[in-house]
Design a protein that fits this description.
This protein is of the alpha+beta class and 182 residues long. The protein contains four helices and ten strands. The strands form two sheets. Strands 1-2-3-8-6-5-4-10 form an eight-stranded mixed sheet. The protein has a two-stranded antiparallel ribbon with strand order 7-9. The termini are far apart.
C-alpha cells in the first residue's frame, strides 16, 4: 500500500499566505517609521571620539524647556533639541578655543556648577535675527552649542544653564578673564 502524501495547499493558496505574511510583517515596520522624527544632520566634531564626550552627551537633559525636547542626530557626540528644521545643537569635541577678545560669560546653575562660554552672534550687525554659538572656554574636550535665530528670537537662551552639569564633566583647564555674569 502506498504511503499517503500529506495534503499541501495549492500554489495559489501558498502565495496568498506569503503575501499576507509579508503585509502583516511590514505593518509594524511602517507604523514605527512613520512616527519617528527625522534625525538632525550634524557635522561630527574633530575630537568627538574623546570618551568624555560620551559622558557629556549622556548627561544632557531630555528637554531644554517647553518645545525644546531631545531629537536624534546623525553624528557621534552630538545631541539636539527643538524642531528638526531649527534645532539647538550640541557638539562635543570641537577644537578648544585659544585666547579671544570675544564676549566670555560664566553661566552658573542652582547646584553651583559654573561653565565659561564664549558667546558669538553669527551676524553681529543683526544680533536679534542671528544664529548664536556658545563654545566652552578652557574645557577639554570643548563643547559647542548652536542656537538658531528662530529659537533665539522666540525665547531667552538662558536654557544654556541646563547644560552646565553635563558640560562640567569636561575638565576645566582655564577660565575667562574679565568675566561677565550670565
Amino acid at each position: 500500500m502506498p504511503t499517503p502524501r500529506p495534503l499541501r495547499p495549492s500554489a495559489p493558496t501558498r502565495s496568498r499566505r506569503r503575501r499576507a505574511a509579508v503585509v502583516v510583517a511590514g505593518v509594524p515596520l511602517f507604523v514605527a517609521t512613520a512616527c519617528a522624527a527625522p534625525a538632525v544632520p550634524v557635522t561630527v566634531a574633530p575630537h568627538a571620539t574623546d570618551p568624555v564626550c560620551a559622558e557629556v552627551v549622556l548627561a544632557t537633559p531630555d528637554s531644554l524647556g517647553e518645545g525644546l525636547d531631545r531629537l536624534d542626530t546623525t553624528s557621534q557626540a552630538t545631541t539636539a533639541w527643538g524642531e528638526p528644521t531649527a534645532a539647538v545643537v550640541l557638539r562635543c569635541g570641537v577644537e578648544p578655543l585659544g585666547p579671544t577678545t570675544e564676549r566670555c560669560v560664566t553661566v552658573e546653575t542652582a547646584d553651583g556648577t559654573a561653565v565659561d562660554w564664549v558667546v558669538v552672534a553669527d551676524d553681529p550687525q543683526d544680533e536679534a535675527g542671528s544664529d548664536w554659538t556658545f563654545t566652552t572656554y578652557g574645557r577639554v574636550p570643548a563643547v559647542e552649542v548652536r542656537v538658531p535665530a528662530a529659537v533665539a528670537s522666540a525665547r531667552s537662551t538662558s536654557f544654556v544653564d541646563a547644560l552646565g552639569p553635563a558640560v562640567s564633566l569636561a575638565t576645566a583647564e582655564r577660565s575667562c578673564v574679565g568675566l561677565d555674569a550670565f
